[in-house]
Amino acid sequence: MDKQVKKKYREDFENKKVVMGILAIRNSQNGKVFLKPTLNAEAWINKTKFMLKHGQFENTELQYDWNTFGEDLFSFEMLEVLRENENPFFDHQKELSKMKQAVSESLLKRKIEHY
């Protein structure tokens, strides 16, 4: 690979925006939703799909449903996006936790079950 191509890949990687927020794994068979606050949505989705395919996901109920119903009945959705904040004292984790609580309450009001 020549230097120009490497340089372009490096620049693309460095300029790539990381999406933070609340992700959901939705089971279309039974309507259940798994919520996850994340600092890097793309990385978490890739990691989670790998873990689910290999039977190693953190939530055993979701893992069981994945194994039972199959991958095609699940979707990954970004429910809330946390905007970038340049303040060095901004606590991203705390804000994501608040966002997850609000989303969870909203889903419960609509009678959507959680994992």
Q: Tell me the count of domains.
A: 1
What is the helix/strand order?
Answer: HEEHHEH
The top-level CATH class is Alpha Beta
In terms of quaternary structure, what is this?
single chain
Strand content: 15-25%
Cα-atom radius of gyration: 17 Å
Mean pLDDT: 91
Structural class: alpha+beta
**What overall form do the CA principal axes indicate?**
flat
Instruction: Assign a percent range to the helix content.
Output: 40-55%
| CATH arch. level architecture | 3-Layer(aba) Sandwich
CATH superfamily: GIY-YIG endonuclease
For the secondary structure, the number of strands is 3
Counting DSSP H or I runs of 4 or more residues, the number of helices is: 4
Q: Detail the poorly predicted runs.
A: none
At the fold tier of CATH, the topology name is GIY-YIG endonuclease
The profile of the biggest β sheet is: 3 strands, antiparallel
User: What strand line-up does the widest sheet have?
Assistant: 2-1-3
The N- and C-terminal alpha carbons lie at a distance of 45 Å
Overall description:
The structure is a single chain. The protein has 115 residues and is an alpha+beta fold. It has a single domain, classed as GIY-YIG endonuclease (3-Layer(aba) Sandwich), CATH 3.40.1440. It is built from four helices and three strands; from the N terminus they run αββααβα.
Structural features:
115 residues, 4 helices, flat, GIY-YIG endonuclease, 3-stranded antiparallel beta sheet, 20% strand, alpha+beta
